[in-house]
Amino acid sequence: MTRWLPAVDPDNREMMLSIGAFIENLSVAAGIQGYEAETDVIGKDNFSSEIAELRLIKGKETSISDRAIKERRTVRKHLLKSPMREEDIKYLVGNNKNTVFYYPLNSKAGSYLSEATLLANKTQVYREDAQKELAEWIRWTEQEAREHHNGLTPESMELKGIVRWYAEHFLSKGDVLSKPFRNETIKLVEEQVQNCAGWLVVKSDNAIVTELINAGRVFQSVWLRAREKLIAFHPMTQVLEEAPWLTELAKELGHTGSIQFVVRIGYVKEYLQPVSLRMPMSKIIVIESRYI
Question: Which GO MF terms does the UniProt record name (predicted)?
Answer without folding.
Answer: oxidoreductase activity
